Amino acid sequence: MGVHDLQKFLESHSLEGGAVSVDLLKIARNVTQRQQPHNANRKIRPIGNKLKLIVDAENCLDRLYGGYFSDWACGGQWNRMVQFLSLLTRAIERGNIELAVVFNGTIEQCRMNEWIAEQANIRQRVGMVLKHINTKATPPPKIWWTPPTCLRSALRMALRHLGVTVMCTMDDHHQEVIAYCREYGFHGLLADDAEYAAFDPPRYFSSENLKLTYKGSIETKEYMISELTKTLKVT
């Protein structure tokens, strides 16, 4: 079983209790200072009673973009993206949640083959999108969504403007995200990458299922690593 297969197994119905629907605002209401994880190596102790979550932006570019807009193929709906991020940041502020969003700024030689394969897949999807627009004259299917050019730069600027902590990793993306999470006392991680499961984060939430609902809740799924290790008989 590879890393990608492990993530699929964690999300599947084959693992009973592996993914549980949660409302982050309800979790934030239950957070108190005495419940925050203790780490002797932490440089800065958490102050107050906010729910602190670190987000791997690479796993949820479409979520941060605000979902699917048909015009993304023509350059992106930047105003709607900023509007969505404004609503999201207002909701997390009201809900007593603090976010830190991390982008991948590394050039990992050991992962170069993965990057090449990913670029080939994107190139193929873009070709299918252009062919669809040319032949059908209709918006492309949602499943072909590809991040518009400069989306990461636009997200970083918008999030900074809205007062959200934004960072870029430099050497090893996954290790730096987990190290920051532990060192500064974050309560959980929002991502969708089974590599994080191996690091045993405090709590592991799905970034792919992150939703800001009309009723004002912030819903997602929590991956239960304990159920995964129990099923795989890993200690």
From TrEMBL:
Q: Which GO terms describe its cellular component?
A: nucleus
Annotated membrane-spanning segments are: none
Q: Which InterPro entries match?
A: Coact_PPARg, PIN-like_dom_sf
Q: Taxonomically, which superkingdom?
A: Eukaryota
Report the sequence similarity comment from the record.
Belongs to the constitutive coactivator of PPAR-gamma family.
Q: Which PANTHER family match?
A: ASTEROID DOMAIN-CONTAINING PROTEIN (PTHR15976:SF16), CONSTITUTIVE COACTIVATOR OF PEROXISOME PROLIFERATOR-ACTIVATED RECEPTOR GAMMA (PTHR15976)
- UniProt name for this protein: Constitutive coactivator of PPAR-gamma-like protein
Species of the source: Anoplophora glabripennis
**Which gene name does the record give?**
F120A
